[in-house]
Amino acid sequence: MNKLSYLVYTTAITALLACGNEKTAEQQKVATMEDQPKQIAEGVEELTIEESQAYTLKGQEIAQQTFKALSGSLKKAMSDGGVTNAVKFCNVNESIIVDSLEKHYDVSIKRTSHKLRNEKNKPNASEQEMIDYYLNTSKITEDLFPEVKRNTDNTVSFYSPIHLQPLCVTCHGTVGKTVSESDYKSILALYPNDKAVDFDIDEFRGIWSITFK
Predict the structure, then answer these.
(1) Contact at 8 Å (CB) between 187 and 82?
(2) Is 116 within 8 Å of 122 (Cβ atoms)?
(3) Rounded distance, CA 140 to CA 3, Å?
(4) How many whole angstroms separate alpha carbon 144 and alpha carbon 171?
(5) In which band, very low, low, confident or very high, does the pLDDT at 165 lie, cut at 50, 70 and 90?
């Protein structure tokens, strides 16, 4: 991430969330190293400051609204029938909820991770690059900022880190502790190749990947 992009994202997210401690000089040095996401392809025009700010703010809005819709429905499903019911609800209804928001905003919305539950959410090359970047950065600092970039097909993608929320530990925490053995059997019945466990609260869980058409 170049210095201009860093200023754009830091300014936008500070205004939105009023968060973040100042980085140390060493952390800022790391932010310019080669482990950053690759820069835009040759011949593809960089986003302007104004465009970057606008896409960052809109991406945050869409991610927040999607999380609100999904978490609200999940809480209700869990209160109606516990984790087993919530997992079944997600398996059937998550894509329906996301599809409706995609149509409303005219974007594609995806949540993906280095530890998948639903294999349909497998990251593409650009998403994997962002996941690796956030994983490496989270080892140095807790301050993970959204990124926006223009793609070679002239679409724009917004990426934002996801951290595990307290509600989520009953499905994504440690099996035998925060995730009961019986509940995990229900999860494996629907997602036999599940890898999305052993997370702690506030740990980096994955990313939002939102592409503006």
Answers:
(1) no
(2) yes
(3) 18
(4) 24
(5) very high
The token duo for 162 is 């996801």
Q: How far apart are the C-alpha atoms of 123 and 121, rounded to whole Å?
A: 6
Q: Could you write out the DSSP letters of every residue in 42-111?
A: TTSPPPPHHHHHHHHHHHHHHHHHHHHHHHHHHHHHHHHHHHHHHHHHHHHHHHHHHHHHHHHHTEEEEE
Closest CA to 53 of 144, 146, 154: 146
Cα gap 165→56, rounded to integer Å: 22
Give the tens place of pLDDT for each residue, 108-141: 999 999 999 999 999 999 999 999 999 999 999 8
Which residues lie closer than 8 Å to 173 by C-beta, 6 or more apart?
Answer: 179, 197, 198, 199, 200
**Amino acid identity, residue 141?**
T
Whole-prediction pTM: 0.79
Kindly state the average pLDDT of the residues 71-75: 93
Name residue 107's amino acid.
V
User: pLDDT exceeding 90 applies to what percent of the chain?
Assistant: 76
Angle at 128 between CA 145 and CA 167, to 5 degrees: 60
Q: What CA–CA distances, in Å, run from 16 to 57, 61, 135, 146, 156? A: 8, 10, 23, 12, 20
